[in-house]
Amino acid sequence: MIEVKNLTKFFGAKKAVDNISFKVEKGEILGFLGPNGAGKSTSMRMITGFIPPSAGTAVIGGFDIVNDAISARAKIGYLPENAPVYPDMTVSGYLGFCAEIRGFYGINRGRKVDEAIEKCFLTDVKFQSVSTLSKGFKQRVCFAQSIIHDPEYLILDEPTDGLDPNQKHEVRLMIRKMSSEKAIILSTHILDEVDAVCTRAMIIANGKVVADDTPSGLRARSKVHGAVSLTLDNFGPDSDQGKLVSCVQQTAGVRETRILEQDASQLKIMVFPDSPDLVIADQVMNVLSSNNYNVKSIFVEQGRLDEVFRTITS
Ligand SMILES: Nc1ncnc2c1ncn2[C@@H]1O[C@H](COP(=O)(O)OP(=O)(O)OP(=O)(O)O)[C@@H](O)[C@H]1O
């Protein structure tokens, strides 16, 4: 388990991280979200022992990162921001060096390098110098060094930054595959990534934790969660919007009907239930059909992470 306890960091008078506490169990993938400068990277640097906290600590698999840094760091794999890798080394030379630092020599060193190269799709550039790699490949090399010792705890600062969509997909798959026996914290600006990878999401703003929930729990905080979106066909600008709205409003459990968009032949509306958990889609559909409205599409809004993120952080 990773246990973060009252972690705080001052840079001069600026409080970059403000007394954050949380736990991450094995099997969890915790997404760190937050605006630029929120304190995500600073928190990760403290959890991995790269910078000392001003107050508080993190306990990694039972080892305190402040009082027993070497034991704690042995259990962590860390992918820092901007993939700092030695440019003059070849990919396999660099990973061999990382494996040695982690205590692997001889045949074990070679095996660890080969495994990391395979997992991170680096075979084609194995003997290429790091300085000649594209940004995405440098990122993958840095990812490879973070998993070379098969750590129980992985801290990944924007792991898919700079990768193309296919590589992003591969890396997310890899993270998910590894997660059953690891506790993983990753930071990201990509809200889709939270849905694709994370079991839990934490929003940080001004150094403080402002939300900690599952991705679906966060989405459920959206103002449109549970609302029903409909598109009506054969409903042009001359059709009677007022009549339609009063027809929908007759449905039990409907709080509000909002007109979203009118074009030459279609109308889009959103119907809000009295409470977000009330299911009204079937009733709304029945009322519209029995009044001869032509429903082209209908779906229940799950809520939007970007909207929730903006509401919480702005
Ligand atoms: N070494 C440092 N010296 C002074 N201020 C720092 C230092 N490192 C970070 N900061 C400040 O601490 C705050 C938090 O920075 P941090 O890099 O942790 O944010 P972040 O959430 O990771 O942002 P981003 O999403 O842009 O990477 C920012 O105001 C930043 O300028």
UniProtKB/TrEMBL annotation:
This protein's UniProt keywords: ATP-binding, Nucleotide-binding, Transport
Family indicated by similarity: Belongs to the ABC transporter superfamily.
Organism: Desulfonema limicola
PANTHER family cross-referenced by the UniProt entry: ABC TRANSPORTER, ATP-BINDING PROTEIN
Protein name: ABC transporter, ATP-binding protein
Gene3D superfamilies, alphabetized: P-loop containing nucleotide triphosphate hydrolases
Coiled coil feature spans: none
One Pfam family, short name: ABC_tran
Domain called ABC transporter: residue spans: 2-231
Lineage of origin: Bacteria, Pseudomonadati, Thermodesulfobacteriota, Desulfobacteria, Desulfobacterales
Single annotated GO MF: ATP hydrolysis activity
Cited SMART domains: AAA
